[in-house]
Sequence to fold (475 residues):
Amino acid sequence: MNINWAALGQVFGVSVVTTVALVGVFTLGIVGTAPRKGGSGGASALVRSGAYACYAACAAAVGYGIYLIVA
Amino acid sequence: MEHITLLIGIVIVTALVFDFTNGFHDTANAMATTISTGALRPKVAVAMSAVLNLVGAFLSVEVAKTISGGIIDESAGIRPEVIFAGLVGAIVWNLLTWLAGLPSSSSHALFGGLIGATLVSVGTHGVHGEAVVMKVLIPAVAAPVVAGIAATAATRLTYRLARGRDEADTARGYRAGQIASAALVSLAHGTNDAQKTMGVITLALVTGGVVAPHSDPPLWVVVSAGLAIALGTYLGGWRIIQTLGKGLTDIRPAQGFAAQTGAATVILASSHIGFALSTTQVCSGSIMGAGLGRKGGVVRWSTAGRMVVAWCLTLPAAGLVAGGAAFLAEQGDWGVTAVAVLGLAVSGAIWLVSRRKPVVPDDAAPASEPEPAGVVTQALQAVAPPPPAGPSVTAPEPAVAATS
Fold:
């Protein structure tokens, strides 16, 4: 019996890090675009563009996912 | 196509039926939480998943050369009868778990069926024990753990980052993200699981001498396998969708997003690294993880326990049915006929029982007022009697059957 622990560990590490990173970045995008609770007005332009950059990063990740499925 | 014997024809039809139950069974993986958080309406969700499964079936150029990934020694004399028996075992187990509303791996059912049929007809040397451990048992144990930890951590993080924000303001963003993750899961499912059916049909054609060994599946095989899985996905196993979307835990948009993203990541990362984890276990694990990640979130362990029991039973149960079917089918033409008739009778009986307490798409949609999700059926109690107390054992009122 030869269990490939290295591959399993790699799957674990990559999965956890990628999931947390993606969810974190996407949440930053949401936080940047959603109205502040009881706040005055919308977010500043800087925050907004940062948020859109977060969304773009997540879109790129989805694109890479499709690439992985197709390839 | 001119030399397809009746037996090969039966195997092809059975393989397509299995493909249908596979889509039917696994809709929940991609769409259960997408529906229960309200990201997509039930019918829209299954339609999207069906289209992506169909697309996925055509996407991959890497053909399933071996139907079982080395678990079965396919050169040890696998005849069409054996494949037929294995498929019948897998279909029966898929239908039984659907009746009980339990997500279980369709791939494991197929492996179990093929293993059982091979053991009976060829003997122990036809099965590679080490491959069973490496490709079925370890992934089945690892998948919910990996996906669960990833989803728990992601859920914690997203709630921390978005604290101070109104849930109503962030829900739209989370739902949009969840749709993207669910689409990836659907696409990956179509690519992987439709391939398996194509592999089975191609192997049957090879054993019947219709196509040359090691050849790619003919186009009609690709098309019919893709259509069968898409049709199954569209009809949707609502019982399983309800269990995963509402029964395991109460999912809010942020959790649904974290769970689905975790599932998509684990599925793609694991198959890319070469240690493929079972989709069903990944998705169930990530939903439980998301349930644990929210403060005040609860996982209904009685439902989770029944699910785990079903996972453990999948391989032996499908194998047992398939073994019996293989024994019968070996007896000659009347045996094959008997297996086909019995298989149809059992499937019909399961369907009839399911009509007594149907689960309709709206049962899986977010309720206007929160109510404990109930997913108890008589069959389920027979599989694993649940403890008498707890929120998840409230029997739902018989819903009005809507066959729109």
About this structure: Confidence is low (pLDDT under 50) at residues 369-404 of chain B. The radius of gyration of chain B is 21 Å. Residues 6-393 of chain B form one domain.
